[in-house]
């Protein structure tokens, strides 16, 4: 089955919604956690996701599509974290973020083949490595707690 430009745009928008949700979730955690060292690390990870949203939106526009503006699968993580970080502690917030990072990593891995051969290299070189870095860094943060 050949992939159309519309298929590429739809898949990139799916990735974009996940990144928007990641940004929202990190934002919720950052607001609730009062550990300055941990907060600084989370801000860096959030910025990485923000950069991915910009890159994905630009690629979607380049293909003639309209970038999604709302969050996706991570939305439930944002809701969980929103009120829970102070109640359940930073460990629970980090665990929720890690689950989201796992989801993002798996999405890029599992859905890469849904993209055309002309768009796939963009994800492989620009997006997936950054996702792997944030995933690995959050795992390091969690294991150091």
UniProtKB/TrEMBL annotation:
- Enumerate the CDD domains for this protein: Ferritin_like
Residue ranges annotated for the DUF2383 domain, each copy included: 9-112
Any Pfam family the entry gives:
DUF2383
InterPro entries the UniProt entry points to: DUF2383, Ferritin-like, Ferritin-like_SF
Where, by residue number, does the polypeptide cross the bilayer? none
Q: What is this protein called?
A: DUF2383 domain-containing protein
Q: Which organism is it from?
A: Enhygromyxa salina
Lineage start: Bacteria, Pseudomonadati, Myxococcota, Polyangia, Nannocystales
